[in-house]
Write a structure and sequence with these properties.
- The chain is α/β, with parallel strands linked by helices.
- The chain has 8 helices and 7 strands.
- β1, α1 (about 15-30) and β2 (about 35-40) form a beta-alpha-beta unit.
């Protein structure tokens, strides 16, 4: 069997053709020290995103997982995690808000054995979020407050993270919506966790996919995580 990669980068996409053309050269540079693959998980984008990714020359190895319809970010990331073979699994957005230049800072603590999970944080010392404006800033603040009992990290709403393969599959992942890092932190309980400050930039192209439906999905997701945590606590109490 071929040797597994050091790093697998999961990049969920929907109508991200123009952003991808800008991002892929930056991703190539960020991943250049590693044996790496990029998994573009595309939900049948009508703008030809999958074709742009498929035509991109190696290195790194670029694979496209084409799905038949717009099935959502949560399942795109979990499908990518299952398909990836890297020792470190990185998840980032494809709209340009997550800087590829921060990938190494996320990967190195895990490859070096200093962490199981590295979270790109807008709220850790040195982080910033100029790409988070208006109602999105208030929604992010409120959502973080609701998630605080589940994890002590500063930015549980971040979608930019790296996790060791061992930690990622420690519990079944069944996220609803778009907060995959919160799902991994709450259910897989990786340790140690490091937070890497980064600048959440304005998107390169396209429009925000955040709407009322996704807010409702987040609340549903949060309720499921609290119920899961309560059931685990109840089982632990009964075995004492």
């Amino acid at each position: 069997m071929p040797r597994a990669h050091d790093v697998s980068l999961i990049l969920p996409t929907y109508n991200e053709r123009e952003a991808l053309r800008t991002l892929l050269p930056r991703i190539r540079e960020a991943l250049s020290p590693y044996s790496a693959e990029v998994l573009v998980v595309d939900d049948n984008s009508p703008d030809g995103t999958a074709g742009v990714a498929a035509d991109w020359p190696a290195p790194p190895d670029v694979r496209v997982l084409e799905r038949p319809s717009r099935l959502g970010l949560a399942s795109a990331v979990t499908d990518g995690l299952k398909e990836a073979d890297g020792r470190v699994l990185v998840v980032m957005d494809a709209d340009g808000s997550h800087p590829p230049e921060s990938i190494r800072a996320l990967v190195e603590p895990i490859l070096g054995g200093r962490a199981e999970f590295a979270l790109g944080s807008r709220h850790a010392n040195g982080g910033s979020s100029p790409g988070l404006v208006g109602p999105r800033r208030m929604l992010s603040w409120g959502a973080s407050l609701l998630a605080r009992p589940l994890t002590p990290v500063h930015d549980p709403m971040s979608g930019f993270f790296a996790v060791s393969r061992e930690a990622a599959f420690r519990a079944p992942l069944t996220p609803v919506g778009y907060k995959i890092a919160l799902e991994v932190l709450a259910k897989c309980r990786p340790y140690p966790v490091v937070e890497v400050p980064y600048c959440f930039a304005p998107r390169i192209a396209g429009e925000s996919k955040l709407d009322r439906g996704q807010v409702g999905e987040y609340l549903h997701h949060l309720g499921r995580l609290y119920a899961w945590r309560a059931s685990r606590f109840g089982r632990a109490s009964r075995t004492r």
